Each structure stands twice: as C-alpha cells, then as structure tokens.
Amino acid sequence: MASNHKLVCARAARRQFGGAFQQAVRDYRGAKLAALTLARGLEERLPDGLSYLPLAFLYDGEVAQLSWEGSVSRANAEARARQGNFRVMARTRPLQAQEVEDRLYESVSSECGNNAIVVHDGRVHRDGRTIYAVHSRFCLDAVFNERARNEEVFEEAVQPLLDSALEGGRATVVFFGQTGTGKTYTARGALDLMSNLAFEKAETVEMCCYEMAGTRGGREAFFDLLAGHEKKQVKCLTGDDGNVHVRGAHKIVCSSPSELCAAMDRAFAWRSSECTERNEASSRSHCIFEFRFPQVGAEGADAADGNLGGLFRVVDLAGSERNFETQMHSRSMAERGGLINYSLLMLKECARVMHNNQKDLESQGMHVPFRSSRLTHLLRSSFTDDSHMTTVVATLSPSPTDVEHSLNTLQHVGMMRAARAWESPKLPAAPSPSEAWEPESKEAAGFDAVQGRGRALHSKLQDARKGQLNLHAFQMKTAVGGSIMKKYEAQSAKTETFIDARWHRELNVKVQDDLWVLRDADAEATQILSSWKAEQWAASKVHDLSRWSAETLQAFLQSLDLPGQVRIPKTMTGAQLRRLGRRGLAALCSDAATAEALDQALAGESQAGKAAAAAHRSTNMRMTALGNHKVHAAIEIEEPMSASHEASNAPAQHEPAPAMAA
Ligand SMILES: Nc1ncnc2c1ncn2[C@@H]1O[C@H](COP(=O)(O)OP(=O)(O)OP(=O)(O)O)[C@@H](O)[C@H]1O
Questions:
Q1: Which of 14, 45, 123, 549 is the most buried (most CB within 10 A)?
Q2: Where is it chiefly localized (predicted)?
Q3: pTM for this structure?
Q4: Ligand 1: centre distance to CA 347 (Å)
C-alpha cells in the first residue's frame, strides 16, 4: 500500500525511476555537447538559426532548443558575469557517500563556461503513468561545479570583496542554501584563505563573531561567539551612517594569520550546531564573522562607528529545511528551526519584493520588509547600498531528492540578482533559432533567466489502453473514467485512491482525466457507500419490534387486515408489546383468529429483521474483502445485494426501508 502512495510522491518516484531520469539528464548533456560542437563548427558557415536545425533532428524539440540556447549564449557569458557590486553565484557539492550508495544520480548540471546552472527535475505526471524531466536553466554571475575547489570559489567570490574591504570599502559574502549543501564547508575554506591574504595588506585585523539564534522566549537575538561559555547577547542597532551595527560584541585584534585562525576556530567551536537527519554537524544559527581593517592614518579613530577602515562580513546562514527533513527533531530543535526558517523566509520575501519593485514599475516603491527579521535588518545595506559589495553564494545539492530545494534556492537568489539588475551592462541580443525563444536581455534579469523549460518524455508505461473502470461494488456502479484503485475500509467506509501504473495494465483502463477527477469520483463513491451502509443498518432495524415506537406500532396494526379487534393502548411501544408474550397478546384480541393473524404478522417482521441483519453482515464482510483484495474483489462480485429487495418487503405504512444506491 505504501509503495502505491510513494508513486505519486515526486521524490520517491525520482528514486524509483532513477534510471529513466538519469537517461533524461544524459540526453540533455549529450544535446548540450552536440550544440556546443555545432555552434562552434557551423555558426560561421550557416546563417543564424539554421545551424540549430541538425540538433532539432537529433533530439527532442525542447531539449534541443534549450541546449542550443545555452551554447549560443555562451558568448554573452562574460558580459553577463557582471563586475558590479552585487553578484550571485552557485556552487554544487559532490554526491555524498550515502547518496552514491543509494545510486542517486546528479540532477544538477553546471555550465561553468556559460555561468548557468541547469536543474533536471524528474516528475510524475498527474495521470500517475507518465514520467518526464523538466530542465530549468538559471543564469548567474558565476557557477562552480562539484569538482571546484575552495580556492577557485574564493578567488572568484570572495577575493574581490576582501580587496575592496582592505581598501576601506564595505563588503559582505552570504552563503545561502539548503541544509547540508556545503555553506559552512565553503565559508570555512574562504575564511582560512582570507586569513592569509588579509595580512598581506593589513597589519592588524579586528574580528568579532556573533550568531543569530532564538532566545528562551522564542525571539530572535544575536549572541557573541567570542565571549566564552555564556554566549552573551549583543545588540543590533542602526548607526548614524544608516548602517546596522552589532554593539557590545567582544573584539579580538589579531596581528598574524595564526591568531586570526585561532579566533575563528574558537568562534566555530561555540557556534550552535547539532546532528540532524541531513547533516551530522548542522548549523542551528546564522553566523556572522565581521572583520575590520583599520586604514593607514586612521589610528585612534573608532573604525566601528566611523567609515574609517574597511568592513568585511562573512555570513554563513543556517540551512533551510523541509518537513520531511525534520521528523527526528526534538522540540527545542523544532523551535530553533522555526526561527531559522522564519528569518530565511523574510530574506526571501525581501528578495521577492525588491524583485517586484524592479520588474513592475507600477508596484515600485513597495515597502521591503527588512525590519521583519533581525537577519534582514542586519543585511539591509548589503542589498540596498550600491557602494556595499555583496556576493551571494547559493549552495546546492546534486541529489534528485533535493530538486525542490535547489529550484527554490536558485529562484530566490535569481530574484536577489534581478532586484539589482540596474547594475547589469546592456547585453547584445543573442542569436536565436526561433522567434519563440527568450530574448537574451531577459537573461540578465536573473530570475527571468529561466530560459525555458525543456521537457523530455521518458515514459516506460505508455501503453494507452482503452476502457473504463466500472466499479461494481455492492450494486454501486461507478464509472470513474480513469485508473483508480479503491480500498474500502469496513469500519469507516473510507476509500483511498491509489494510482499505480501496474494496475492500468491489469485493469485495462485508460486515464481520461486527471487525478482530480478521480478524486471527485472517489469522494462520490465514499459518500454513496457511507450513506448506503447507514441506510442498511437502519433497514435492518426497521423490522425489530423492540425498537418500534407507539406510533410505529399503531401504524403497523392499521396496516394489517385482521379479522377481529385488537385493544392495544395507543401509548404501548413495541418493546412493551413483546414483553406481553403470546398469551398476553391473545388477551388483547377479540377472538382467537385475530390473535393468530397478529402473531403471524409479528413473526413475519421478525423474519425480515433477521434477513436484513444477515444482509448487513454480508455487506460488512464484502467491504472487508474489498479492503484486503482491493478492486479485484469488487469486480469479482457479480451478484447484486439483495438487501434492497428485502427492504422492499417492509410494510408500507411504517418508515420504508431505504433502497440501496443503484
Ligand atoms: N564542495 C564540497 N566538497 C566536498 N564535500 C562537501 C562539499 N560541500 C559540502 N561538503 C560536505 O557536505 C557536508 C555538509 O556540509 P556543511 O556542513 O558545510 O553544510 P551546510 O550547508 O553548512 O549545512 P547546515 O546548513 O546544516 O549547516 C559536510 O560533510 C561537508 O564536508
């Protein structure tokens, strides 16, 4: 049963049909390679657009189009990789040992030369039979694949910021992404490399480090990580310069790389981290490293308050988590996780509003809720101040089970990038093989950089069978017009729908509509069955003398064609009549013939009651059989139930036994 459920769950399906999805990824990569070769070889010889044609013959239309588009826009990659103050990059970690053991494939392709990243999303169609892959491309300022080393990431993402800070500027690098994707791994690598380089230009480096976590009262607060055990709370205040500063944090002035590394290690040691389902050492707080580089000639000045001296921040955010990843969390972990998710949500919300403000002229000026979380409050200048250099590094997991996370991360960093699109240089239009292609200028806008969604069909189960499932369940004939497996639970008459491709063939059915239609049909079936069961129960009790009210008894007596008189009091109920017994009943009748006729009529009612009760029991048994054997059991039952016929024998005067749904 559980396996059927899993089939409609995309994550489980990605595991189950891994081979087919992997083939889709291979196809895409093959098409990409072919497109690159063609673009290089034919572009100069053939007019625009025509060089695309050989690819269209070889591959599925959308895959060919997407891969071609990726290869021709390669020329624009350099222009697209902005040298502006706000840049967005992505780094994919390699598959972990457990993922390799589970035979998971790589669902992310990094097009490093093209500064683009493609997420291959394996999906199951709502019909439950067709599986297909959607390839989504996101264009960023730089992309690092799973083989990229920390040094490469540092050189591209961090070094320009460090240089700017060493010259007196303000810079922030933010590591953002799903839990267990390598934010801390990348941040630590960058910090280690930074500690050496910083002293090439600065004599001393002042460092403070704090984390944003929850207080006991469930509120966000900053805690000093260099203050030892106590984790002293520090304040986050807006200074005269309009920037947000953390006040009261312990500062360490380092004069050598080893001192700086020791201070960083100390901060990492105090940072909140716990073992979770996804990461053995998962960060449970947002950690901010702040470095100040006093400028030459600025000695004695309060560099923290004035703009004298450069500021460099490394923000290692806690990872976003989804419900299925937090099943084993304790209560306190769940509370902290709630705060983390809230602050990340607010960060995404700010990105969304900024993006909307940028994209839609009408909504320009919409309030960006930076103050809704302490994290966004702190990072405000990174996103709004043009002179503040910011790099957001999105970390991604290549696992197909994390595709939703990866898409979500890329969409949000894309929005952040788009929100600062005014900085991007004007790009020349890319050659396009068809009118329908997205214009290259859109690419620069980050979020709109999803260059189209390729769709490659890889259905193993394309046998389109005709027919219709007629569900004969206890006289109920439901033409659901689709592939449906029902499980009827005897007690609650509950039905569940399972879509399982195997049943399509066995039942020889074809999905005509989508799952929602089937669900409607299922709900209808549940309703009919439930009311029918209730009616049957009521029908079985209609003939039970001991349940008759005084009115029902009088109606019953009037319906009988008795030879003589019966002197039964108008207030006497069925139960009281039964207690009289045969002799007591005869005493109420005017003659023996009347007593005999009344006795026979009551015996007939008793018989009918027994038959109805037997029918009800049989219904329950059949329902149980359905529960155990699913639809097969229902189909094998050919004889309609006879309870309705029994019910029709009930006396017309008293409450008629309801007919079953036919
Ligand atoms: N690029 C990489 N190369 C090799 N291993 C990596 C890479 N990125 C991450 N890892 C490994 O993945 C695991 C998780 O990494 P890390 O703790 O940095 O994730 P995280 O994103 O900080 O997670 P959380 O948000 O839960 O703190 C670690 O064991 C790390 O060594």
A1: 14
A2: cytoplasm
A3: 0.62
A4: 22
